[in-house]
Amino acid sequence: MLFQAPRGCKDILPDDQKYYQFIERTLDKQAEINGYEKIETPLFEYESLYKKGTGEGSEIVQKEMYEVKRLIKDENEDKAEKERLILRPEYTPGVIRAFIEHGMKNLPQPVQLYYFGPVFRYNRPQKGRLRQFYQFGFEQIGAADPATDARMISLMHSLAKALRLEEVVILINSIGCSTCRPNLKDYLKDFFSKKKAALCEDCKSRLEQNPFRILDCKNETCQKIGKTTPPIIDHLCEACKDHFKQVLEFLDESEIPYDLEPTLVRGLDYYARTVFEMVMKSDNKRQNSLAGGGRYDDLIQIYGERPTPAIGVAFGVERIIELLKERHIKLEEAEKPQIFIAQLGEKAKKKAIAILEILQHENIIARAALSKNTLKSQLRVADQLEVPITVIIGQREVMDGTAIIRDMREGVQEIVEQEEILDRLKRKLELKK
Ligand code: AMP
User: Fold this and answer.
1) Could you tell me if 111 and 314 are in contact, meaning their C-beta atoms sit under 8 angstroms apart?
2) What's this model's pTM, rounded to 2 decimal places?
3) Is the CB of 294 under 6 A from ligand 1?
4) Does the C-beta of 216 come closer than 6 Å to ligand 1?
């Protein structure tokens, strides 16, 4: 039996919880300010949802999905259960499935949803790349206007600021719509065919089906060739060019910093028109994006519904946490225990429990070490917890109906009647604020 977390997965220990909580609190607040409502979808979904949505040609679907299987099969299995299930590798298809399933098209449009939770991708674990990692993101469904794209990018930018990541840059491009995409595809095919010999084996096969993905390849030579591709936007249809121009104008107007990245594409098939990523200015290679997203106007139609424009962005939580740590950004600490209750003997233990209950009702954080029997070992725990005050109840105090209240920093102590403990503790804690 291996006593270690599976490769590429990690425990979120108490010390790290404050980072997750800080991010989630910041997210909830920004979402509220901007009128987004929270959604949570199942950790696993039918594979077909992702094959159709994220795309059979995407790296995620081809190589990175985990299957979910029951260990025991029986004859009474649901028919639906015969469909293959996968752990969600990203949220968008699940959120859109919920949008369709719950008839959200009948709600006032656009529908604005946000999420926070784990996703799963099989890849080679390394710094900034895990197999189970947390994502949060926003989806806005039902608005096509270029101002929507700019608003989504602006939201991404203000969230980074609220997360104290000020030095970010937004990379942006447009990859066209279903009208101009076939031309663009032919154009890229032509361009890369001339360089075929130098491409990696994967890209050679991408050449026919999806030359866009060559621009997203991790192989260094392919990346170098990719950078020499003439700008994609030069080959867009007039409507897409106009849409993109307006997005940029809105961004200029709001003074949101961005860099045009003429060969930026995104690894998922459903994107159309505006695509963007957010990286740290210091990330010269622009490899470790903090967030990525774009418009996906065709996805809902791919699922057989009335065409509905949509746009979204997803952030990687662990990458943000790494940056917060690297930059020694101080976060509010979780509240520490203020009082320790030490006891000696069975009767004292009962009294200690009663005091713990009273303090709990008063929302005062208190701790005890009820399975330790010597005073010395209990006071050692109190020291480790760095509590300012310890209450000590021994056999004598039980008989007298008193308790000792010790000020741990000053080393002084006093004896109080048991009925007065709460008042005395409250007063002492007040003085320590
Ligand atoms: P994607 O869904 O691939 O567009 O990714 C959105 C964000 O999730 C990225 O910008 C990263 O911050 C984060 N991310 C993607 N893949 C991983 C991974 N394997 N491990 C940790 N974070 C990731």
Assistant:
1) no
2) 0.88
3) no
4) no
